[in-house]
Amino acid sequence: MRTHSRTRTRTRTISTATALAVLFSSAALVAATAGPAAADSAHLLGVKSAADILVDGAHQRVYVSDPVEGKIVVTDYAGAVKATLDGLPDVDGLALSADSGQVYAAVAGLNRIVAVDTSSYAQSASYKLDGAEKPRTLAMASGKLWFGYGSGGGGIGSLDLSGAEPVVALGQDGEASFYAAPELGSDPDSGVLVAGEKDISTGELTVYDVSGPKPELKVTKSVDGAFFDDIAVSPDGTQIVTASGAPYYHPVYSTEDLSPIGRYNSGDYGAAVDIAPDGTVAAGTSSWYGPDVHIYQQGKWSKVREYEFPNTGNSSGADTLAEGGLAWAPDGSRLFAVSENSEGVFSLRVLTEPDKSLPELTVAAPEKGTRAKSLTVSGKITDTAAALPAGTELTVTRSDIETPNGKKLPAVKTKADGSFSFDDTPPAGGKVAYKVAYAGDATHAAASGSDAVEVSRSATKLTLNKNGNVYSYGADVSFTAHLGTTYKNRTVEIWADPYGSDKPNKLVKKGAVNARGDLSATVDMKRDTKVTAVFAGDARYASTKATSTAYAKVKVSASVAGHYKTGKIGSTTYHYFHKNTDPVLKTTMSYYKGRKHRFEMQVRVDGRWRSAGASEYFRLGADGTSAVRVEAPGESGIRARMRASYVNGTSGDNVNSTTHGSWKYLNFTR
Fold first, then answer.
1. For residue 511, what are the β-bridge partners?
2. What is the pLDDT of residue 36?
3. What are the domain boundaries of the chain?
4. 489 closest CA partner among 456, 544, 538
5. pLDDT of residue 245
6. d(Cα 367, Cα 560) in Å, to the nearest integer?
7. For this UniProt entry, which residues form the secretion signal (predicted)?
C-alpha cells in the first residue's frame, strides 16, 4: 500500500525574540589614568562652514559665522542654539562692541559691515564700505572697528562710530601691502593692531599703533609662518601669538619690533589662537591623531593641559579644530572651540576649567583578597605642568555589594613624590572598588582614579528539582529551588528557557525562599525547557545557580476517514473499509515552524503486527494539520494499523520530546 499527502503545506514566519541572559561575572576595574582631556561637552551647530567665533560674556552667548550658508548661529554657554541670523552672504569676521550691545559682522557678499543687537538679535545697522570690496576680518582697537578687505589687492580700513555719523576710512595700511584681506589681531585697550597675510605664503607681520587720530606703522618684518589663520595680542599689548600651517608651533613676538620671544610647542599645524584676559594662551592645532587644544600660561612654555577631540566621523583621524575656532569667555571660566569631523559636521565644544592643569591619578588594588582580612591599596598623583606638594589630601571611597553608592573611608595624604597607600579590611565579598579623588584647587583640575579587587566569599548550595522528567503537552509543572545558608540575601530567581529560538528566557518568579529555604514556580510545559534557579549572592556568600531540564511531549490527535463503519474485534475498535477504498489518516499536532510528523503503518500477519514498509515524514500545515491517504490493498481480509508520531530531531526540530499518537486500526472487506 502506498501513501500520499493530500494536505498542501503552508509556511509562516515566527519572529525571533531576544533571549535574556543572567550574568554573574564581575569585571575588575582598570586603574584610571588621565591623558589629554576630552572636550567637556559638544553640541551640533547646524552650519556648513565656520569662519569666526565670538563670545559675548555679558549675555553669555557664543556667535559662529557660516559664510557658506550666509548666516550666524548664536548659542548659549552650554552650546544650545538660541538663534540663527540669516541673509548674510559670505559672512566672515566678527567683533563685539565695548559695551557688549552690538555684534559686528563682515559680510563680504554685501560689501558691508552689519551690526546685530545682542539683546534682540535684530539687525540694528548696515554700514556701506564704498571702495572696500569683500571685507573679511574685524578687530576692535582704540574705540574703532578695524577691518581687512580686498581680493587681489587688500587693505585695512576703519569704521568710527563715536560721532553722530559713522565714518569709514580706507587705505589705513600705510606702506604695507597685502595680497588680499589680511588677518587682524588687536588689543582693544593699548591700541596695538597686527596684520598678516591670510591667503598667501608671505610670512610678514605688520604692527600698527592705532591709539592716535591716524594709524602709525611701527614695524613690518618677515617671521616664522605663512598663511596666518589667526593672530592674538596679549592683554598687556606686549606680545603677539600667531597660528599658521607652519611652523609646527605657535611663535611669540614682541609688539615693539617683532623680535621673537619664545614659542608654544603645540606640535602640529597651527589653526587658531586666543588669549584670555589674564594672559592664559589657548593654542589650537589641526590634529587628526593628537591633542587639538593646548593651554599655556603667558610666557611659560610648558603646557598646562591639553584637550583632544573624539572621532565623530568615519575616517581614522579624529575631529579637528576649525581655523580661527577658539574663543575665551571673558572671565576665563570656559574656552569655546569649533570642531569639524570627516563628514563636514561642525560642533561647538565647551571646555571648562581650561586654565587648570590636569593631574594624573592612578590607583592599584590587589587582584584578589579575602573578606574580613586587611589588604593594601596604593597609587600616585602626578602633574607635569604644576607639581602637587607633599601632604596633598585625597578622598577615598569604597563600593561593594552592601554599599553600591560608596562609603567614605579616611582620607589619605600624598608623599613627596605624589605616591600614597592605605590599608582596608573589606567587610563584604565580591567586587570591591576603591575610588581615590583629588578635589582640585585654583591651579589644578579635579582628578580621580579607581581599581577593584575580587574579594572571596563562601559558597552556598542551591538545588532545583524535576531534572530529566517528561510531561504531557501543556502540563503545569511546579519546580522548587532550595537555597542553603546565606548571610542576608534570601532571594532566588527562577527562569524558564523553552527550546527554540523564538521563545526568550523568561523570569517566572523572584522572591524570598520560605523558612525551609524553598521557592516554587509553575512552568507551562509546552516545550522542552531549561529551568534555572539563580542566587545573586550577598556580602558573605557567592552567587550561584542550578539548572534542571524537563521535557514536554507534543499534543497529537488523529482521526480516520473513508470507512463505512466501525466495530470491535476482540477489545479493539476497527475502522471498516471496502477493499478498494483508500483510508485517510488526519493528524493534528502542536505546530512549530518546519515541523513534520512521521507516518507509520503495520499489517497483521500470522498473529503479529509487521511493518508495512519504511516510515515516511509529512509536513504539517500552518494550522498543525496533515492528511495522509493510503492506497487501498484491492483485496479483503487484511487488517492494518497506522499512527502519526513526533520524533525529536527527525521531525524537523528538537523543541519537544518524542511523542507517539495512538494506533488507528483498519479492516478491509469486500
1. 492
2. 62
3. 3-14+554-669, 37-352, 360-456, 462-552
4. 538
5. 85
6. 71
7. 1-31
